[in-house]
């Protein structure tokens, strides 16, 4: 597992890539990022539920329409943005560990 700053920077880069591809309707790039890069980042960050959710988008319930795919991508981006906010808040709260920030982000997701 990487350091907290490596995980945070990786998430920032990943979100920027996802948002750029989403804005430009690059469906193939979105699929690659969601299936490969999100899963990789989530495993490194110790968040297997995100990795599993990204995999399920393609293996257990594949999308039958472009709109459905984009809706799932938007949900994935929202989830990652919650974690990004938690990481940013944890750097402001000097006493809070990255594990506490992760737990807080998880509680936001449901």
Give your account of this protein's structure.
This protein is mainly alpha-helical and 110 residues long. The chain has a single domain, classed as Four Helix Bundle (Hemerythrin (Met), subunit A), CATH 1.20.120. Helices cover 81% and strands 0% of the residues. The chain has helices at residues 4-23, 27-44, 48-59, 66-92, 98-109. The longest helix is centred in the last third of the chain and has 27 residues, at 66-92. The chain is globular and about 40 Å long. The two termini are 25 Å apart.
Indicate the CATH class.
Mainly Alpha
Between the first and last Cα atoms, what is the distance in angstroms?
A: 25 Å
Shape: globular
CATH architecture: Up-down Bundle
Could you name the key traits of this structure?
110 residues; mainly alpha
Please specify the SSE layout and strand pairing.
Elements: H1 4-23, H2 27-44, H3 48-59, H4 66-92, H5 98-109
Helix pairs in contact: 1-2, 1-4, 2-3, 4-5
